[in-house]
Structures are given as structure tokens and as C-alpha cells.
Amino acid sequence: MANRVAGPEIEKLIQLLAKLPGLGPRSARRVALHLIKKKDQLLVPLADAINQAVTKVQICETCGNIDSASPCTICTDRRRDPALLVVVEDVSDLWALERAGVVNAAYHVLGGTLSPLDGIGPDDLNIPGLLVRTAKGDIREIILAVNATVEGQTTAHYITDQLQNQAKDLQADNPTFERIRISQLAHGVPIGGELDYLDEGTLLQAIRSRTSFE
Known about the structure:
Layout: H1 8-17, H2 25-37, H3 39-56, E1 58-59, E2 66-67, E3 81-88, H4 91-100, E4 105-109, H5 127-135, E5 141-144, H6 150-173, E6 181-184, H7 200-208, E7 211-212
Parallel strand pairs: 3-4, 3-5, 5-6
Antiparallel strand pairs: 1-2, 6-7
Helix pairs in contact: 1-2, 2-3, 4-7, 5-6
């Protein structure tokens, strides 16, 4: 059994770093050692930034994005097209599209995908919030920017059914209500691919070549 080479505080830091995506025990040790060596330049500012994130970061009540204010910066940006809504699985997908600068629209974060095997149903996602937004009649097109996975496509089909049923009910009460166009990402997104790992060119092509969801 290997002997300890550092105190419990450092061991705890390494253990926590090892839980981050892309970091294993060895990488976590290297990162921890680098932070400690650069204590004043890195470790102290990082600790302060994490503390501020804990106290100030919150989930946007409108779209589900993560920001220090609610509604978030994106939802309060009047330069965006309020008639175009991009639906994504996670905040990382929203940030990926924003990083690529491919669309100037509002967003809606689902918080995951439908997965019966994992016990994730419609009530576990932000689908009711989406229906509340579409019922107002301000949205003209929804882009289902979900990942090209089985779970992602299952979720897209479910959302489409819900939106179509909602449109029928709204039109029954208000014949002038216009149905929302539903489109999906097209060329450039491979089957099984995830948005956060795609480059900006691929995302741009996927947005520009979107097709009606069927």
C-alpha cells in the first residue's frame, strides 16, 4: 500500500480535481501540484472565483441557462430574435452554439433527454416551461438542436408531439393562432455526435441546413 506523500488538505484537493471531466488521479495530482506551486497567481484567485460562483451563480428562470442573474444575459438581450427559439439538451450545448456565433436567437435548455432506462421522464425535463413559452404566441420557429443520439431524437419526437397537440388546442380557442415551425439540425452533425465536441464550422452548417422535423 502506497504511503501518503501529502497532508489531508492536499489529498482532498486531488480527490476533488479527479472528479472533473477529463481528469484522472494522475492528471489531478499534476494540476494540484501546479496550483500549489502557483498559489498566489492561481490557487487563491481560483478559490475566490469558486466562492463567488457558489454564492452568485443561478439557473435562469426563463430559459434554464446558468448565469449570475435571472433572467440571464441572453434572455435580456433585445438584439436577439424573439420569434426564433433554439432548444438544447444542456447548457454546454447552448454555450457551444454561442461560441460558434451561428444563430442570434433565444434559447431553451431542457436539462437532459428522455431516458426510461435511467428513470428520466418528461416531468424531469424543462418541457413544461417550453410549452408555457410557446403558448404566448410570440415564437414562430423552434430549432430542435438536440444531439443525434437515440435519446436526443426520442426527446425531439416527444416535444414535437406536445407542440402539435398544444397548437390544436390553441387553434380551437383562437383560430388566428399560427402554428410554430419546428426544424432540426441537418448536415454536419454525425449520428451519435454531441454539440459540445463539434467545431464552429460544423455547427454553422448544421444551423444553416436545418430541415423540418418529421
